Amino acid sequence: MKAIPSNVMNAAATHRARKAAALASALVLASCAVGPDYQPPDVPVPERWAGISSMTPASQPQLAQWWTRLNDPLLDALIDEAVAGNLDVATARAKVREARAVYRQTAGASWPALRGSLSETRSGGSGRTLSGASNAGSSNASTNSNTNGNAGTGSTGDLFQAGFDASWELDVFGANRRAAQAAKYGIDAAQWGLGATLLTLIGDVASSYVQARGYQARLALARDTAASQEETARITRLKFEAGATSGLDAANAAGAAQSTRAAIPAFEAAYAQTVHSLSVLTGQPPEALLERMKQPRVLPTPTLPVSLGVPADVLLARPDVRAAERRYAQSTAKVGQAEAARYPSVSLTGSVVTSATRPGDLGQRSSIGWSFGPSLTVPLFNGGRLKAGVEIAQAERDQSFIAWRAAVLNALKDVEGASVALYQESERTAALRESVASYRTATDLARMLYRAGSTSFLDVLTAERSLYLAEDALIQSRVLFTTYYVALNKALGGGWNGHIDTSVPEVTDTHTGPHFDTTRD
């Protein structure tokens, strides 16, 4: 055997060492990343609420299941049904599933890709040889030619091949990692978006329920008042027919009764529309809750005071603020992803193929070929598209940051506005209670004086009308008071804290395996 020269062996070893060093350098660079690293934003918030008073303690607010403190079992049941059946919540759950699938898909780009192949090739051929002989006779000047075709030999054969190839992008400048970061932030944003949807839903259900009960109370008041006024009109008409009173009194009494009666259809329409909206919020047809809401109940009324905590608590409790912050983080990672696209990319590719004339020989008597090596792709000229992509990502990042700042300011504004409105409305409700009591006393006195002949019937009508308006205003104020209580808990971030299953799809596919396509024309 001929010895291999030492300089050849040294050259081969040096070549392998260089390749190993290059590969090691690439793997070291794989820990690098370009683009900005996300830093949680910091925004100055006040240390205390501007509208805080002795009625609004700064202790930690009790946000868990806050609607149960209204002591209305039907409201509790409707909120449970809405969480389970609302279509906006179903959409938010699907977005969470989508975000998780996007993350798995994006994270998969960081792993090597391996593909297998199996093929059979049948080939064959045939050959034909052409030869000619010509003899000429000189005596009779005759010519004869003859051409013979001799068939060649042909053969057919099979070639079987099996193998696999692999590729792996080393992600030297972190494009894949930035994409995975963005997808991970997207999961967080989708989950907080689900929380924001639940917060809005629960607030809408509670507000609609309170409004529906308010319309029921106003309907009952209008009907009772109209019935009382109609009875007064009947008595006045009998007195007029007997000559004991004037026709003016009878006409005024009838007009007052009909004026009150005219408000009833508007209340009935508003009540029906509110119940229809409430039904849709629970994911049911508009008429689904008409029967369950038919029986009037006491208007839910909260108790004061309500703890507000400190403004910084809202930034942690409000899911819309948290979702906006996660979207800002996601857009920041996308800036790095776009920046990494401007840098070279390094990949490792390899393949192994075995060939044989029979399938059983693929693993034994077969020829095997393989290849392995790195590849480098460098973006030399692209007309500024990659740079523009970075600028687009930066502009989207700025929009996300501005949206987060707006969410913070709106959250603080919502708490300030709802707390002031709640406590101002409580004072208005107390004043209206005193007003109702005074007008009720005035109405009783006016009726007594009228029966005694010491005052005119117009004074009775005026007192009754004033009492009705005061009672109706009191009901509206109580509705507003509870509505502001709902808005305050919503502004503080009080929502659903139970389990939400986001793994179950809304649509279950069947017959998804290979089958004939029957949808084609």
UniProtKB/TrEMBL annotation:
Pfam families: OEP. InterPro entries: MdtP/NodT-like (IPR010131), OMP_efflux (IPR003423). Residues 114-154 are annotated as: Disordered. The keyword Membrane applies. It is found in: Cell membrane. Keywords: Lipoprotein, Membrane, Palmitate, Transmembrane, Transmembrane beta strand. Residues 114-150 have a biased composition (Low complexity). Gene3D superfamilies: Outer membrane efflux proteins (OEP). It is a lipid-anchor. Belongs to the outer membrane factor (OMF) (TC 1.B.17) family. This is Efflux transporter outer membrane subunit. The lineage of its organism: Bacteria, Pseudomonadati, Pseudomonadota, Betaproteobacteria, Burkholderiales.
